[in-house]
Write a structure and sequence with these properties.
Elements (H helix, E strand, L loop, with lengths): L1 E6 L2 H8 L2 H8 L4 E6 L12 E2 L9 E2 L1 H14 L5 E12 L2 H7 L4 E5 L5 E2 L9 E4 L9 H12 L9 H6 L17 E2 L2 E2 L9 H19 L1 H4 L6 H13 L1
């Protein structure tokens, strides 16, 4: 996969994405990340990328020309690749795990990180997706882009050491993930559930499913309305409600 990020603050993107799992994926050539300072594409002699809005209003808007020319340069390099061009915008569609899974199937992703008050509306005509990290406003799109990149890249083949991890994570199954334990078996009076140490894989899987349902029921009951519960899950959910 190739990822391009358009930003006014390249270091804000380059340094974090050079670390940890994403950095290792780049080293293994599973991933290519290109960070573009779109200020360099401004046709203004002062490299200005923003201006006052027509009709008045607070703040400055990003101009369409630098973004357009930067995207044009990327397209010239990768015209043979299918791509999604993603505009980070508080008014966009909320990002979620399903979207990360969709993005992970693409050959190329291009993220446009905004700044200032907003965008010239014509920038929206250049993108395939307008995406928001959540119902709040950040000073720029860089943090949102990095979150989306991280959530997407970890789903790529061979990026995680254990590929099953991505498939069983919270939200990937439609449920929150069950609790996990590691050694020691006893710590400060807190023990590990006996079922996890008895070696009976059927009982362990049943416990994991039940505790995943329990956690979802207690913390995110809205998620249960979005999935089709099997008969086993319905039975376990009744047990959970009686226990709670």
């Amino acid at each position: 996969m190739r990822i391009d990020v358009l930003t006014l603050f390249p270091k804000m993107i380059e340094e974090p994405l050079g670390e940890s799992i994403i950095g290792k994926a780049v080293e293994k050539e599973l991933l290519e990340i290109n960070v573009h300072d779109f200020r360099q594409y401004s046709d203004n002699k002062h490299k200005q990328v923003d201006d006052y809005p027509y009709g008045g209003g607070a703040g400055m808007l990003l101009k369409v020309q630098p973004i357009y020319d930067n995207l044009k340069a990327i397209e010239a390099e990768t015209s043979n690749q299918s791509k999604r061009v993603i505009l980070l915008d508080p008014a966009g569609k909320p990002f979620n795990q399903k979207m990360a899974e969709e993005f992970s199937q693409e050959e190329q992703l291009v993220f446009i990180c905004g700044h200032y008050e907003g965008y010239d509306e014509r920038i929206r005509s250049l993108v395939t997706d307008e995406v928001s990290l959540g119902d709040y406003v950040l000073t720029g799109g860089e943090l949102g882009a990095m979150v989306m990149i991280d959530a997407t890249v970890r789903l790529l083949p061979d990026v995680l050491g254990n590929q099953t991890s991505a498939k069983t994570d919270s939200h990937s199954t439609g449920l929150l993930e069950h609790p996990h334990y590691t050694r020691p078996a006893e710590f400060e009076g807190m023990g590990v559930p006996e079922v996890l140490m008895n070696g009976n894989h059927r009982l362990i899987e049943e416990w994991q499913l039940k505790e995943s349902l329990r956690r979802t029921y207690l913390r995110r009951p809205d998620m249960l309305e979005k999935i089709e519960l099997t008969q086993e899950m319905q039975k376990l959910l009744i047990e959970i409600k009686n226990e709670e």
